[in-house]
Amino acid sequence: MKYPQVWDLEIFFKGGSDSEEFKTFVKKANEMSKELNERLQQSLSLKELESFIHDLQTLMQHAREAGAFVSCLTAQDVKDEKASLWQGSVQELFTSVQNVTVGLEEKLTDLTADEWTALINTESLREIAYNLEEKKKAADEKLNPAEEKLAAALAVDGYHAWGTVYNQAVGRMQIPFEENGETKLLSAGQLQNRLNSADRKTREQAFDVSEEAWQKEAPLFTSTLNHLAGFRLKLYEARGWDHVLKEPLDINRMSEKTLNAMWEAINDNKPRFYEFMNRKAQLLGVEKLAMHDVHAPLPTEGDASISYDDACDLIIKHFNKFSPKLASFTEGALRDGWVEAEDRAGKRPGGFCTSFAVSKQSRIFMTYDGSMANVATLAHELGHAYHSHCLKTKQPLAQRYAMNVAETASTFAETIVADALVNEAKDADVKLSLLENKVNRALAFFMNIHARFLFETRFYEARKEKLVSTGELNALMEEAQREAYGNQLENYSPTFWASKLHFHITGVPFYNFPYTFGYLFSMGIYKRALEAGRSFEDDYISLLEDTASMSVEELAMKHLQADLTTKEFWQEAIDVVLADVDEFMRLTNK
Ligand SMILES: [Zn+2]
């Protein structure tokens, strides 16, 4: 075998979850955190504040290194109990880092305007001036520190707890499902798998059972959702924020104008996707697609198999057409044991990429089974690793990109490989299935996620006035789906607000539009790369280096000369997907 399929973790800490080196490392990080906390108790001169900021960043890197190691340990062996214990200790470390950060923010708000200007113009802090300004602005727009502290303390039981109750209630759901002549009790997740079944009868049955089950639990979820939204809105009101999108837009460093331009461009193009949906309905032998058909596999599902070594070579070869630097980075990562790909028992499902901030290396986790989807996943995760690689010389605060640009490099890398697989496919069914997968992905971002965004925006507006009833939630959801899917479906899922976890997450508000943004932003970059070929490489790298140092509008203007607040860029991005729709229509036009 040319490329190792088991990753190398020994280079970080020898001995896995028994590692003495790791024990010492975590102990040292905890001491650093304690020492920083003590320094916060005194008043700090500007010079002392400057070195405090650098020491805090060092601590952040240590916490990330420890977190990365533990997530690798727990993923490679789900039965490693010592690794699970480490998870708790690392979580405590992250919490203490968070406390130190809050302490620093308080110090920053206490500075006079002159002191502040002097601080951020310090030579060593220039690289993170944007990030410090962002922190200061966020703090200025909030309540005073004492009130914010109280709000955060009350949020534990009065806000986040509603998310916990939701998760507990979903975890207890047992849904009767008839299969092969017997009635089984399924979990919500198991029922979800039936919804994606290749057999239409099974999907249909799962859909009906699912709607009924969620409707039964809806009164409880109506309460939890109304209460968590109520808490959020009350806090916004106290801070003087009247717009529910303010916080999510700020977190993603983007303007509402950009968001609107993106959705408008998507809306303009929806009719082209209706043609695709109609064709898919024909191929499935139905008049109109139902909700549970949209992402169903085609009846002539083709798949081909490819060995791990061949997949690695294919990825390197195609990356090289766009960027020799990306290709040689990838070759090194694959050769030096950055990837855990072996198909063996005891591994966690799924895939991820995590970066070791101190060692400046990444590790990729997945289980490679030879399918085309796996090749795309490997390329996707390598894209994440490359993004970290481009940012590795930046100060830690300048490495913290937001959710909407987090998938830029990964989607870009995945698209290069997905296109190559379509072009190289020899079997007609395989080619069609690969194309369909690509368009399907776009449909999820343009329709499903759009429905979530429309629902959530309208729900929060309604919630400002009063508690929103189960019936009203169902109606809002169905209306949002009809609008987002252009009334093209045979049925809708009014209880989707209850079954979709994302509406009940309290960590981040509006867990939807950043996905669509990220996908299309990456497609727009891909379009530029298709036109420019290898000469685009250095622009691409500088763009990645800046992902955590400016707003997305500035990022696009500086590196792509594109104005995100108008539809033009978004249309270019959508054109990339439309080319796939055209090809799909051509291949199925018989
Ligand atoms: Zn990703």
What's a quick, concise take on this entry?
This protein has 22 helices and five strands. The chain is mostly helical and 590 residues long.
Backbone CA Rg: 25 Å
Please, what is the oligomeric state?
single chain
Give the CA-based shape. Answer: globular
Largest sheet: 3 strands, mixed
The distinct bound ligands, ions and cofactors come out as:
zinc ion
In percent, how much strand structure appears in the residues?
A: under 5%
Trace the largest sheet across and list its strands. 3-5-4
Helix content: 55-70%
- Distance N terminus to C terminus? 43 Å
Number of helical segments with 4 or more residues: 22
Number of strands: 5
* Structural class computed from helices and strand pairing: mainly alpha
Tell me, rounded to a whole number, the average pLDDT: 95
Which consecutive residue ranges, at least 5 long each, have pLDDT under 50?
Answer: none
Order of helices and strands: HHHHHHEEHHHHHHEEEHHHHHHHHHH
